[in-house]
Amino acid sequence: MSTTASSFKQAEHKLLSVPGPVEVTDEVLFANAHPSMSHVSPAFAPVFGDCLRYLRKVLYTEKGQPFIIAGSGTLGWDLVAANLLEAGQKALVLNTGYFGDAFADCLETYGAKVDQLGAPVGGRPSLEEVEAALKKDKYAVLTFTHVDTSTGVLSDAKGIAETVRRVSPDTLIVLDGVCAVASEEIRMDDWEIDVVVSASQKGISVPPGVSITALSQKALKVLDSRKTPIPAYFANYKRWLPIMESYEKGTPAYFATPSVNLIYALEASLKSIVDGPVSLEDRFKMHKEAAKKFREEFMRQAGKLGFKTVATSPEGAANGMTAVYVPEGVAPPALVGALAERGIVIAGGLHKDIKTKYIRFGHMGVSVVERPSDADKILAALKDALQAVKSA
Amino acid sequence: MSTTASSFKQAEHKLLSVPGPVEVTDEVLFANAHPSMSHVSPAFAPVFGDCLRYLRKVLYTEKGQPFIIAGSGTLGWDLVAANLLEAGQKALVLNTGYFGDAFADCLETYGAKVDQLGAPVGGRPSLEEVEAALKKDKYAVLTFTHVDTSTGVLSDAKGIAETVRRVSPDTLIVLDGVCAVASEEIRMDDWEIDVVVSASQKGISVPPGVSITALSQKALKVLDSRKTPIPAYFANYKRWLPIMESYEKGTPAYFATPSVNLIYALEASLKSIVDGPVSLEDRFKMHKEAAKKFREEFMRQAGKLGFKTVATSPEGAANGMTAVYVPEGVAPPALVGALAERGIVIAGGLHKDIKTKYIRFGHMGVSVVERPSDADKILAALKDALQAVKSA
């Protein structure tokens, strides 16, 4: 007898509490175990179409064009760099950590002239600094990392977008939302965001392997009015646009084979995000509350030991993850190991300047909305792990 | 209670008999439903490492370097074009169908000067023609599609490689094996193939979403001695090489998040291909025998009606798929539809010159090795479907 959705319960495992990949539901995993389907079958096309429609809801956009392409989140940078800039054009990268450095690197690979506007680790450039930079030079695009996974710093997406629109209305606004989509509010139309770059394995709560991006009508016009050819084949939006339009109409089309099973999983997760019992507004509110509570409890337990969040201001701290400096005398790998022994998987450092000095927790998606008790488990294990590490 | 490997049986579904994606085993789907894991967890790293080791066996290479990257098979063309050629260098594309045209297009996108050597639809360039072309000009790379999914034409991989090595030993030999790896014999070391491009969803029998490529030591040297920077970020082998080396040693490393669940699925399938009860040699033999039998039975049933294989010679016909012209009076969509009504999913045409005149069947992987009775089901349904279409 075959396995049914209701009989499928995922295998026992350690609680995954890194800032992505995140815990996913049984429904999503069951969808990922869908029997093989042709990518051009009439049964699969509407599933793909649904994903596109759901993504529009998640991003609060009516005319934004989502793209679902097999790849890592990183592929989204190539899509931006190869399609929305031409060699020699200028880009302003607001840098709040590792992912700012790397995005800048990607833009330069395709010939963009990049200026970076940074801040000390844990901080973010102020809107005044953004305004000043935009007044000093003309940029084809401005990029910012909504949540930088290496620092847990949250950018003021709405404020940045308002500043760009006021000071430099032609500049395309690119929001790197790999670690933000579906855990942080992003109002693509209202805020006039031109590009959202994301992936499946964070707030969207699906296994990794899908690059998810969305373009505003303005970004599509920039794409359409390029003077030079797009210097990439797979990462070419012009090749993917008719495919997305066709699938959305329910008609399969082919450029390169999509990750069929992950798209079934994506549909299952997006359906529950958009049409589930918790509204999108409540989802974002729950992430805010969960982050606040997690950090308060964490500090109540560990603050006196010298732990300190990397993000230097509460309004500049992500709602789906937290990065925390460990005090002198506690080795991050020992703490990560002690937590793993207690069934909790957290992440070590990533930012080059502080790599060996901090740890990172994820608190997004399923662990916030469906199973808020996950945070209690993490904190209980932390208490125990801290004892073990201190007495070792 | 959680679902276990032995209790998981994939959902009932139509038999997928297109030339990829193909049917996959319950074990592979169960692995694809693995609970969320960190891509840098010590438990995941050896799984990734095993995939690399197994791929070497499948390709009969000791020192070839496999790369497993989230993406479609198509991404492999970008990897070749962006990394192993520099703008202005020449490439010779042996064209046996749609995938030759498209690979050429990709190479040109990155600035290569491409010459194509084709043949009438269903045929393949002769080794004499290849030799003559190589003597006329100097090519940095030669590419060929081992099995062109649009025509079912099989290239003589060994013969082509011998010719290139003899006539133009510096030319890199690129085998596009998306529809060939694990269903056709490929002896990377013995035949001195420099690059194999593949994907998860065909002979490898895993859901789509993973680009699989492998480079010879010679190709790695070409990569290493480039004079110009690699014009891509995600599709940059130099960024991925240390990641692959690290995972193979069992140590996680990060450049972009791999498709963790698909890699569990890949491990499950490659393990059964490499270490299962059927040897690799027997696997290839079984594909040859199954293809021969399928085409004989098909022609016995339908040959007198005017069906005809697209591949014009038996030695130039793939062992994992068959493309067949339908006779006047039979509409391919009607036949595809009639088969779907009978639980069998086959594919329509793809090659631009004959698109509306033919149909395609897949017979590779699970349907050949684990469940040879799939072919009987297809042929029985075909008989019935043909009656229905003729009498309609």
TrEMBL record, chains A, B:
The modification N6-(pyridoxal phosphate)lysine is found at K202. The keyword Transferase applies. One of its GO terms (molecular function) is L-serine-pyruvate transaminase activity. Its EC number is 2.6.1.44. GO terms for biological process: glycine biosynthetic process, by transamination of glyoxylate. It comes from Rhodotorula taiwanensis. Residues 30-351 form the Aminotransferase class V domain. InterPro entries: Aminotrans_V_dom, PyrdxlP-dep_Trfase, PyrdxlP-dep_Trfase_major, PyrdxlP-dep_Trfase_small, SP_NH2Trfase/AEP_transaminase. It is an enzyme of class 2 (transferase). Keywords: Aminotransferase, Pyridoxal phosphate, Transferase. Substrate binds at R360. Gene3D superfamilies: Aspartate Aminotransferase, domain 1 (3.90.1150.10), Type I PLP-dependent aspartate aminotransferase-like (Major domain) (3.40.640.10). This is alanine--glyoxylate transaminase. Belongs to the class-V pyridoxal-phosphate-dependent aminotransferase family. GO terms for cellular component: peroxisome. Pfam families: Aminotran_5 (PF00266). Its cofactor is pyridoxal 5'-phosphate. Coiled coil: none annotated.
